[in-house]
Amino acid sequence: QVQLAESGGGLVQPGGSLRLSCAASGRIFSMHRMRWYRQAPGNERELVASMVTGGASYLDSVKGRFTISRDDATNTVYLQMSSLKPDDTAVYYCNARLFTETGWGEHWGQGTQVTVSS
Hints:
The chain has strands at residues 3-7, 10-12, 18-25, 28-39, 46-52, 55-58, 66-71, 76-81, 90-100, 103-108, 112-116. It is 0% helix and 62% strand.
């Protein structure tokens, strides 16, 4: 069974940094698109960063502050977050399009809380 597990969330002061990790486990043959979403209380889930082979894209409000990266050797995707603001407070979710024993499919992690507050 394929699972995604996020880690790295927590409480940080404005201006601080955090690095989120998302490790995919199970029989995975290929990772295609990797994404980070976030959802703040009362808001819809929004796409923060997306990565495919050859490029990445970002939500306008995080450009220049967040960086998505991946390590295919360990099936892990990262989100480096810097210059954090209170508006970045949300539950962050990892999403991946993976090729497994059952073919291509979308997979989600359970989420990790990021709180930016003084």
